[in-house]
Design brief:
The protein is of the alpha+beta class. It is built from eleven helices and 14 strands.
């Protein structure tokens, strides 16, 4: 028991006993006890009122001097102690907040805080420089301040797995990268990064690859033409014949590599116009499977299991390039060095907000350590996926870029000895289903 409470109980006992003793002297014991209790209750209410008034003053300013005693004094001391602790915590938090603001102000990247209603709460100096925020913008909805349509769609969609790269709406020639990170109860942290230098370097790289690829195409055509002419010479020395055949084979491979580089450059630089045509997936799958059977030479079984009546909004030429790359890769590499016949299946699946095209095989599979790097340019897997198979190492990079242009992603699932499945996952909004005897209708997300 705390000292103040013990003292208060002692006073209460002494006071009641004294009043009752006096009352008994006059044969008024009961009346004396009632008087003692009532008077003590009034005393308690008086002290309670004083304490309440003291607390009310403490809400406006710091708690005043403790003029109480007993349990009331202890309660006042406790309140002063809690207030002091609160002030220390408040000061510590203010110091932390100030420290964080100083650190974020030192960043070259812009930082913007938005609350659960998308209203701007705070930003650092870099964000002010990049997007031009002003003091009057505090508390305003961020999409009312940053009115770029692509940013508004990106922010409101709530899908922040990939950042948004756009041209600056404040500084001409500047490229900005926006990345939104949700946190707390609906708040969002927006990171703005100036990637102008990186974008210029990337553009230089694309221009260099495109120019070199185009410049190589003409001399390669000339070299191949002369090699083919020399190969047709009758009674050619066998040694020269073998050399010319190797030159012709490598010339074809170089031509294929240059063509793939040109295709990649076009995919990176061209706009997305012409990507709203309806592509009949079952028909497209049938054409690709027929091409694959010609390459397989009856070594593999190719099956088209795409559901009939499905169409995809996109560019048919690009989609055919991506899917055929995956099917032809399966034809070339599924059996590895074993030479065993495999079954290669092209199928479709609708799953929630996504539509999937699966290219699966029951071949040798891929070691999981290679899967994250398969879409890198020129990356090769050991064994059956070597340059001896005639590939350029750019097929899956082309597939990745085609899918990105169709708002889709490539997923790869494989285990050694258990086959592989390459899945092209499209937003369900791109899928159009044709009902029997009816025109095609878009699938609701």
């Amino acid at each position: 028991m705390r000292k103040g409470l013990a003292t208060e109980l002692q006073w209460f006992a002494v006071y009641v006993c004294a009043i009752v003793f006096v009352g008994l002297s006059f044969d008024l014991g009961r009346e004396a006890a009632i008087f003692a209790l009532l008077s003590y209750a009034l005393w308690l209410f008086r002290n309670l009122g004083r304490l309440e008034a003291w607390i009310a003053d403490a809400r406006i300013s710091r708690p005043g001097k403790n003029q109480f005693f007993g349990i009331w004094g202890e309660m006042a001391d406790d309140i002063k102690l809690m207030n002091q602790r609160h002030e220390k915590d408040k000061l510590r938090l203010q110091t932390v907040v100030s420290r964080v603001q100083q650190m974020t102000s030192a960043l070259h990247d812009g930082v913007i805080l938005a609350d659960s209603r998308a209203n701007i709460e705070w930003w650092n100096d870099a964000a002010n420089t990049m997007v031009g925020l002003r003091e009057v913008d505090l508390g305003q909805r961020i999409t009312n301040i940053l009115r770029e349509p692509r940013f508004q769609h990106y922010f409101d969609a709530g899908e922040y797995r990939e950042p948004l790269e756009i041209e600056s709406f404040r500084n001409e020639g500047q490229r900005l990268l926006f990345q939104v990170h949700p946190f707390g109860a609906g708040e969002r942290l927006i990171i703005v990064r100036d990637i102008t230098r990186v974008a210029k370097l990337e553009q230089m790289r694309r221009d260099f690859v495109a120019n070199v690829s185009h410049e190589l195409r003409t001399p390669l055509t000339v070299v191949r033409g002369y090699v083919e002419t020399l190969m047709s010479v009758p009674e050619l020395n066998p040694l020269m014949q073998k050399g010319l055949e190797q030159m012709h084979e490598q010339g074809l491979r170089m031509t294929s590599l240059v063509n793939d580089l040109i295709t990649l450059t076009k995919l990176e630089t061209d706009d997305r116009s012409g990507q709203n045509e309806l592509v009949d997936l079952n028909r497209l799958g049938g054409l690709i499977i027929n091409d694959g059977r010609a390459i397989a030479n009856l070594d593999h079984t190719l099956v088209n299991d795409i559901e009939t009546g499905l169409s995809l909004r996109g560019n048919e030429k690009e989609l055919r390039s991506a899917i055929s790359n995956l099917v032809f890769n399966a034809v070339k590499y599924a059996s590895g060095d074993t030479g065993n016949a495999c079954t290669i299946r092209l199928s479709s699946e609708r799953s929630g907000p996504m539509f999937h095209l699966h290219i699966s095989d029951d071949g040798v599979g891929i070691d999981p350590k290679h899967i994250p790097r398969l879409t890198e340019r020129f990356y090769r897997v050991d064994g059956g996926r070597s340059s001896g198979a005639g590939g350029t190492g750019l097929g899956l990079a082309i597939v990745k870029h085609v899918l990105l242009r169709h708002d889709a992603i490539l997923r790869i699932a494989s285990r050694p000895g258990a086959g592989s499945t390459f899945s092209c996952s499209f937003p369900i909004e791109r899928l159009v289903v044709a009902e029997k005897n009816q025109a095609p209708s878009a699938v609701a997300p």
